[in-house]
Amino acid sequence: MDTMRDRFAPVVSRLLDEDPRVAVVLAEIGMADLEEAQIRHPDRVINVGIREQLLVGAGAGLALAGLRPVVHTFASFLVERPFEQVKLDLGHQGVGAVLVSAAASFDWPAGGYTHMAPGDVALLDTLDGWTVHVPGHPDEAETLLRHAVAAGDDKVYVRLSVQSNAEALPVDGSRFLTVREGRAGVVLAVGPVLDAVLAATEGLDVTVLYATTVRPFDAAALRRATETAGTDVVLVEPYLAGTSTSAANDALADLPHRVLGLGVGRRELRRYGRIDEHVAAHGLDAGSLRERIGEFLRAGVRVGL
User: According to the UniProt entry, where is the signal peptide (predicted)?
Assistant: First the structure.
């Protein structure tokens, strides 16, 4: 199966052909896959070189000129390094862009910590008005990328990963999907962690929700799920643990509830390893998730919540 990032160049190439407003801005990363598109659209495929602050600034300039910029590089170089430009050139100036990242939290362990960005979604959460898509399958990535480009002039972040679920679900760019129904708690799986969550909760009487759009947070779907499954909620996110706990707490603010946020830990892992070793080290493999989710739900039963 191809990866989410494998879909990026073909999709944006077609979008360039279809929509004269679309422009693509790169910082070397991904340029080789868009050489033919650049020949066809030399004024709308722009490579700024390894200058990530300029990458975002140039995208904002194109947006000010009326174009719909798609800005792409690794997550650490797209959100963290040029954060001031994301905040000011896009947010302060009131213009939008589609930021499309690669490498996710630790998709290229050999690149070291400079190429890891588990805090990207949490960092964007400090800003107003961002839509955040976290697809869990290449088909979903293609759908959500098209949603993002078509979203007027909004600010949209699309987080691509080489990690993937086995099958795509029919995502719509807004709602959480109910994948499994139960009565003893709600587990919300974000993007590529769904398969691990389904394996971890096999045989448990829990509702499993699936999120590929985490901002805006679908509070209505979470509340509906708690009507039958109770208000013990576990969030499993493929980035910094606890990123969405405040959103879940806000959704259930008028109800007695408990929320557990699972995800990538804050402790830096200083060995390269493989992706699956990083997943296990952060407790995001199916076995670890089953233990942590089960312990949390059992604690709720003991205290009568």
Answer: none
